[in-house]
Amino acid sequence: MKLTREFKIGIVVTIAFALLYWGINFLKGMDVFSNERVFYAVYEDVGGLERANPVKVNGLSVGQVRNMYFSSDGQANIIIEMVVKNKIPLPKNSTAKIVSSDILGSKAVDIILGKSTEFIESGDTLKSDIEISIKEEVSRQLQPIKTKAENLMMSIDTVLAMLNSLFSNTNTRNIAKSVEHMANSFENLESTTSTIDTILKGQRKRLENIFGSIESITQNLQSNEDNLNNIISNLSSFSDTLAQARVAETINNVNMAMSEVAGITKKINNGEGSLGMLVNDDSLYIELEKSSRELNLLLEDIRLNPKKYVKFSVF
């Protein structure tokens, strides 16, 4: 059977269109000749993810991002469509996380496998997550340093304000006066020290004598240590004797005697009894004085005129 020219042209055109269709879908991340599963994930921000970026599981590329578009719920969420060509089972609690695939900032979707015993089917939606960027990580790490730097600057501003206030004209004059007073004080202290040195030099011999006397006293105390111990022992024995004596009873008897003497004195002052009358009655004193005076006159007369009172008879 001879093929016509038109038939050959038709076959070539058909093959060309098929190759063109396959090439376009391949560039979109689609492979029309393989069994593939499609999964979805919803993000608020894809962080630079693009179509045809790889989809990985444990670092192994298992598919591509085929499409991305905004959701129709009016919240501007982005839905990504992932094509997984590998037959690896994906647990239901797996997470599709957007990560950086290299240091240049290229993105990829890393499917983090969960622990569920149930598996998702093609067309299901995975939980979504996004890795923070280097910029965000640096910002997060530098934020405490930034806060501390701001606090430090505020502290420095406060210190500078205090220094400006401290070194104002008035305070500067006061500080100068204080420094001058301190200098005068040091001069006075130096003069006082010099005076003390002079006094000590002048009294050095006397001080040596005093220290010698103190040393001699110390030696005497050491040499008479036994005597001092005996004295202290005797004092201790005497104090023990006093402690054993009936001092309290004796003091009570003395108190009683003093009370009785006070009572007698009170009675005498009140004129009670013979002694009270003798002390308080002036007439008895007057009579005694009168008798004493008459007795003196009688004795004087006896001395002057003994014959008047003494008679001698001779037998």
State the gist of this model.
With 315 residues, the protein is an alpha/beta fold. Helices cover 60% and strands 15% of the residues. Strands 1-4-3-2-6-5-7 form a seven-stranded mixed β-barrel.
Characterization of the model:
The protein has 315 residues and is of the alpha/beta class. Among the domains are: 33 residues; 97 residues, Elongation Factor Tu (Ef-tu), domain 3 (Beta Barrel), CATH 2.40.30; 64 residues, no CATH class. The chain has nine helices and seven strands, in the order H-E-E-E-E-E-E-E-H-H-H-H-H-H-H-H. It has a seven-stranded mixed β-barrel. Strand 3 and strand 4 form a beta hairpin. The protein is rod-shaped and about 225 Å long. It starts with a helix and ends in a 6-residue tail after the last helix. The model has no long low-confidence stretch (mean pLDDT 79).
